[in-house]
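Dear support,

I submitted the protein below through the web form. The confirmation email said the job was done, but the results page showed an empty box. After a refresh the structure appeared. I'm attaching both so you can tell me whether what I see now is the final result or a partial one.
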Amino acid sequence: MPLLNASRPSPETFLLMGIPGLEHLHGWIGIPFCSMYVVAVVGNVTILAVVRAERSLHEPMFLFLCMLSVTDLVLSTSTLPRMLCIFWFDAHNILFDACLTQMFFIHSFTTMESGFFLAMAIDRYVAICHPLRHTTILTYKCITLMGIVVGIRGVAFFTPHPILLKQLPYCRTRIIAHTYCEFMAVVKLACVDTGPTKSYSLSVASIIGSCDAILIALSYVFILRSVFRLPSQDARFKALGTCGSHVCVILVFYSTAGFSIFTHRFGKNIPAHIHIFIANMYLLVPPFLNPIVYGVRTQKIRQFVLRTLTIKLS
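What the results page shows now:
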């Protein structure tokens, strides 16, 4: 059904446009998006299965990695299938309640992703800067508590979002110029003053994101300082290689998420298709890259997978 013929949807639905200005490329854009989703699902499920099966991997780093994998699976599954329906089947309609549910999962689990990046950075800091105290500091109780705090933080700060949107009247167009239900894209459709509501959302996202990013940066500064004090050049290169790949994933996540947040606040002149395309990146790229960076490049996980495959093929 062409989008122009459905410009007046029923009150119970919204219309997701996809990427405005690039509608003629939707079919092609869906191919790499789908490929990234398949890699994300297979990679993250593999990590969860490997860590569950191999007791030697029940260490803080891998337990945090499992939490990150679950977050990635929820985040990518809450967005990618719906995007592909838009790109390939022109299925633009989405129920209002489904829209609010998707929005809650996106914002809360994006916050959890940020929190687990911070937890993993703390683990690396303790492991490298205080190796003798690693097991006594990051006990199973501490790891569980950190995971619970990250989860509660994501849910608590973003539960008000769908509740606030549910109360607003929508007398304007119900067309959302986006590929998914984002808070700022939906709140713009309300026909009342939403200044305080927008400020709350931007403030929460900015404060949480900036605090996590600053703490992660500090942890890696201390890590690098310790690495450069190592007597062996091989050990320094090995530690830098591991930290470098982790930092690249974190930079992709925070740079694209930050761009999206500040575009809502200051980037009025940025073309919509650029803003939306980059907004998709911070939801798609980390779930795609995390299994590669944290899984394939991790020797213990790689060896377990290869050993399992060798046994099954022999």
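Response: this is the final, complete result; the empty box was a page-load delay. The chain has a mean pLDDT of 86.
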